[in-house]
Amino acid sequence: MRKFKEFIIEKLILSCGLASIFFVGVIFFFLLKEGLALFQFIKPISFLLGRNWYPISEPAQLGIFPLILGSLLVTLGAAVISIPIGVACALYISEIAPGKLKEVLKAGIELLAAIPSVVLGFIGMITLVPWVKNIFHLPTGLTALTGSIMLAFMAMPTIVSIAEDALYSVPKSYKEGALAMGATHWQTIWRVMLPAASSGILAAVMLGIGRVIGETMAVMMITGNSAVMPKMIPFGFVQSVRTLTATIAAEMGEAVVGSEHYFALFAIGIVLFIISFAINVTADLFLHREKTRL
Amino acid sequence: MEKLQARNLNLWYYDFQALKDVNVSFEEKKITAIIGPSGCGKSTMLRAFNRMNDLIEGVRTEGKILIDGENILNNGMGLEGLRKKVGMVFQRPNPFPLSIYENIVFGEKIHAEKIKKGRLERIIEDSLKAVFLWDDLKDKLHKPALGLSLEQKQRLCIARLIAVKPDVVLMDEPCSALDPQATARIEELMRELKNNYTIIIVTHNMQQAARVSDETGFMLLGELIEFGRTEDIFTRPKDRRTEDYITGRYG
Hints:
The structure holds two protein chains of two kinds. Chain A contains twelve helices and two strands; from the N terminus they run ααββαααααααααα. Chain A is mainly alpha-helical. Chain A folds into two domains: 2-40; 44-293, MetI-like (MetI-like fold, Orthogonal Bundle), CATH 1.10.3720.10. Chain B is of the alpha/beta class. Chain B has helices at residues 42-49, 79-85, 100-111, 117-130, 134-137, 150-162, 180-193, 206-212, 230-235, 240-246; strands spanning 2-13, 16-27, 31-35, 59-67, 70-71, 86-89, 168-172, 198-202, 215-220, 223-229. In chain B, α7 (180-193) links the parallel β7 and β8 (198-202). The two termini of chain B are 32 Å apart.
């Protein structure tokens, strides 16, 4: 009887585990089925590299290249802002901050992670947008830069907390060894702690970037959503762009089910899925390397 | 010649007194062993000599520790300079997760005003030769140090230390993670290093103390009970408690 109970519980847990895989499989299958249907109308290459996104013109032009560039631009900007600040913040929390301040900072970072993205978008809209507009003398403040700054706030909690974990798990003996050699605190951090935690920090950066690429609400509110080819960096930053995610969110409601437009939005979903997947796998590889090395 | 002296050294962890009025002096270019049961304060004393105890919260030190006549407990003492002069080998070998090369030039890189490539090469060769690793490792200097065997790691840590030419080498149970053969070889190395360095080794392996040291101190509950020539301590201890310990009655 006891054995039977064990058996039931085991199988129950197993099926819960399998369920998550099953749902991923189903979602992926659905995404593929709807997305790949697009390619009966249009070649993959002209979908990915096409420079015009006019889904409701006649005939529809479905090139997502400007959207991909829009996503990359916003992400790049967010990464440039959030990586140095995030890593420095993690260093400060794990290495320098005294006990009490450390707790306050950690709580603050968690709070930052808890702010819904729509609220960030909203705050960005009324504070950052006019500011960007005035500083750069633009006709509108709804630009890639505005999105980058707001998204940096979203990436930061991920980067800080994972990088801080990585720094924290550097064995104390490394630090002791460096200090016992007469290294200063900063030399210890720069020459021993950071290299020792590098895999974890890279993973933190990748996951932060993953979060930025997949973000929808805030970017939709503050990047201006114009699906045109961005200019070269740095001019592209002070221009309205539209990201992959915002395109799906904004247009799914109006796309006629079964139309080219509808399939194209799913195909964008596939592109996003591939990007996120690649980023997560890379981050995982770094984290895994960390574990096997120590 | 006396290299390092402790005078009326007292140390507290919060309310717990870990060192009680320790007076001791260590001879230059000799090996001095500190023995005693676990928790007797021998590691604490060792870590007072390069002020590693400063890293631990709640530690308060009183008295004097003189190195070449200078009291290192003075507030103005530069810890970086002190630790360059008084190096430490730890219980668990702790090479940095960098290449063998980077481990050895670490000290030079953090202390030198200007880094000269030729000088680094010389340091590598000299230090590795001094710990008898040169022949084994000269072709894999850029391999990660964490891939070495435990004994090689401990040798590397010693090489890393002598690359900065310290005066005093503190060893905190340097062989406790090693097997007997490796231990014997590290002891051999210590005898070799004695020609150039003042070595203080903490160990709870009494045979090791008897084998390698010139002088021995016995500590118990934070006090230095007896100090003298190793021969004397092991053959005719003056204090009853020393005798009890070396004959294995406690510890």
